[in-house]
Amino acid sequence: MEKDLKFSERITLNPKVCNGRPTIRNRRFTVAQMLELLAAGMTVDEILDDYPYIEREDIFACLWYASRIADAQSVLPLAS
């Protein structure tokens, strides 16, 4: 539970930043962008090297956030 609180503080929703999409610490780096990097095969260390303002905990917070979305009661089907 304590870890959830720490992760939730790293993921921000601000209508003035990236049109209100979930971002990392109110920066113009969305959770979706992070998930795309990971899905493309980048390692955590590669991401940290390429984006020095990103912290290791930010990456895990994005995964935490995605797990909460995936576990939602209702989800929209993916477009085919």
Question: What topology emerges from the helices and strands here?
Answer:
Layout: H1 2-10, E1 11-12, E2 23-24, H2 31-39, H3 44-50, H4 56-70
- The helical percent reads 40-55%
Tally of helical runs: 4
Question: What does the average pLDDT come to?
Answer: 90
Task: Please give the alpha-carbon distance between the first and last residues.
Answer: 36 Å
Low-confidence residue ranges: none
What gyration radius follows from the Cα positions, in whole Å? Answer: 13 Å
Helix and strand content put the structural class at mainly alpha
Strand content: 5-15%
Strand line-up of the largest beta sheet: 1-2
Structure overview:
This protein has about 80 residues and is mostly helical. The protein has a domain at about 1-20 and about 40-70. Helix content is about 50%, strand content about 5%. The chain is built from four helices and two strands; from the N terminus they run αββααα. A two-stranded antiparallel sheet has the order 1-2.
What key attributes describe this structure?
80 residues; mainly alpha; two-stranded antiparallel ribbon; 4 helices; 5% strand
Describe, in short, the structure shown.
The chain is mostly helical. It is 50% helix and 5% strand. It has a two-stranded antiparallel ribbon.
